[in-house]
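[09:14] KT: can someone run the structure on this one? pasting the chain below
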Amino acid sequence: MQYQPETNPNILVRSTTMLMRILTVIVTLAATLPCFAVSADESVAPQTELLNLHIRARADWQGDWNGSEMNDDHSGFKGKYLMLRLDGEILPGLTYSWRQRLNKKITDDNPFNATDWMYVRYSVDGWHFSAGKELVALGGWEYDRNPVDLFCYSVFWQNTPSFEFGATTSYDITTRDNLMFQVTQSIWHQPGLSNIYCYNLMWTGNHGPVSTMWSANLAEYSKGRFISYISLGNKLEMGPLRFELDLMNRATSHQSFLLRDCSVIGDVAYSTPGRRWRIHAKMTYDVNRTHSTADLAVLPGTELKMAGGGVEFFPIVKQRTSLRLHATCYHSWGRNTEESDIMQARTTFLSVGVSWDMNLLRLHRK
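[09:31] RB: done, C-alpha cells below
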C-alpha cells in the first residue's frame, strides 16, 4: 500500500543516522575527486555536478468518509513523504542516482525496503546501461509520477510495487524516441519466492505536444506463471493545458485478453498565467471481471470508479518546485475487493497539505 508511509520514530532516527554517515562519506569523496572533464580551454569548461542533494517532503490533513461515517484510522494530520535524493556524475558518461524514504521502515529481511532506487548508469553513443534498484518500466504517466505529486490513485497504482533490483538497456532511436528493455526481480516476489522476474519493453516518445510511454510486460507471479501487461500512456500538452490518458490491459494465457481486466486513468490540468495556480481533475476506472488469481493488484470482482480534482498554489514563482499548497477532493463508487484500500464504495477523500523541495547541496566539477 503506497499511500501509507511508515512513521515509527525509532526507525526514523536509526535510518537518518545511517544515511547521514553514508552522506558524509559521499560528500568527502566527491570533494576530493580529481577533475575528469577534458577541454581545449579549461577556463571555459562546462561545469558538471559531482553531487546534487535534495530533500522533498509533504504533510497533509486528510479526511476519509465511507458514506457519512468518518474513518478515523485514515483521517487527521499525516506525514506523507520525506525523501532524500542524491544524483551526480562519477566519470564522464557514468552517473548515479539514489532516492531514500526517511519515513519508511527498514526491516531485517529487506534492508532496501525504504530505498526507492539506487543505481549507476553509463551512456555512450545513444546507448544507456544501468543496474541496481530502479523504477520498474510498467508504463503509464500515473505509475511513473513521483508519489508526492499524486493526491489520489487508481486501484492498480495503490497495490503495485514500483521499484525492484534489475538491469536496463535502452537506445535512443532518434533524438525524440527511446526504446528500453529491462529485467528486474518480479514485482510480486515475496519471502520464499524470490527467484522470479519481470521482463519489460518500453517505448517513450516526445513529438511536440504529444508524448507517449508505451510498454509490454511479463510479470512472474509464481514460478513459471506470468501475467502480461499492455500499458499505453499518452500525454497532450497545449500551452497551459495538459491531458493524460493511461490505458492498461492485464491478462494471463487462460483468459480473454481484452478489457476484462484493465485500468483507465484520465488526468487534465490547467496552469494559470504566471503559473502560480494549477487546477486539475482526474478519473480512474479499475475492473477485473475474471476468475483468475493472477492479478494481485486489482482483485477479481473489482469494478471501482473514482473522480475528483483540486487546486495547487505555488507562492514562489521563480522556484516553482520549492513550495506548494494543495487542496483536493475525490469520490469513489462501485466495488473494490481489496478491503485494505482507502478508496472503497461510496468513499469521499479530502486532502489539504503542503509540500516543499530543499536543494541542500550542489558540488560542481569544472
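[09:33] KT: thanks! DSSP finds three helices and 17 strands in the chain.
[09:34] RB: yep, looked fine to me
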